[in-house]
């Protein structure tokens, strides 16, 4: 409705809101406007037309009629809508349960978390492992990482994959990676210079990719190197362009030929001759 001009969204907001409130919902079989005001929304008609004006009540609704209408909504309409909504929810829940296997993950279960998007086919599908802390009332799970810190959000069962991990790995000490400074070695033997969070630069160590519990720090490192390389290429291209502009401006200056130099010498000789005659 804004024709790709998102700056005009506030101009169309009232009509969009009205259209949404006028639409009949599947659950309630009613429009939100009708349920709110206990009446139908006035249709978009030309009320100057006498045939349409005759359909309008001659008097306004009295206070008693409004009270009776509201009581009818609370006693009949709202209970019926509540009953219908509950049936629809139960049917939808049954269809979902029939198509999806519900797994109850016990506490301390090791799981991997599905990543929301993959930048390439080489990117991992899951990250982790994490440990289940508890199940919420809504059916999602609270997880913790290898440092026993809770993850920032809860996860639904469809995002989790149960895995088996080495029990000795649970007792390993983990440290947080602050940044990767450099790398060395070729593919298959590559190591990364790790800056550890909470430690100085002297404590940096070379680590293999297998030592990381997540590929996120490594991905960030290569992305940063790619951005720096692109910036360096852009800087070189700009320098080349500036040099070409300077050369073009220099070549555009008038060229003093040998013939012009000879003319200037003749003029200087004539001027000096005139000066001698005047002085004589």
UniProtKB/TrEMBL annotation:
One of its GO terms (cellular component) is nucleus. Residues 242-280 are annotated as: Disordered. PROSITE patterns: CHROMO_2. Its main location: nucleus. The keyword Ribosomal protein does not apply. It is found in: Nucleus. Residues 175-233 form the Chromo domain. Coiled coil: none annotated. It holds the Pfam family Chromo. Keywords: Nucleus. This is Chromo domain-containing protein. It comes from Rhizopus delemar (strain RA 99-880 / ATCC MYA-4621 / FGSC 9543 / NRRL 43880).
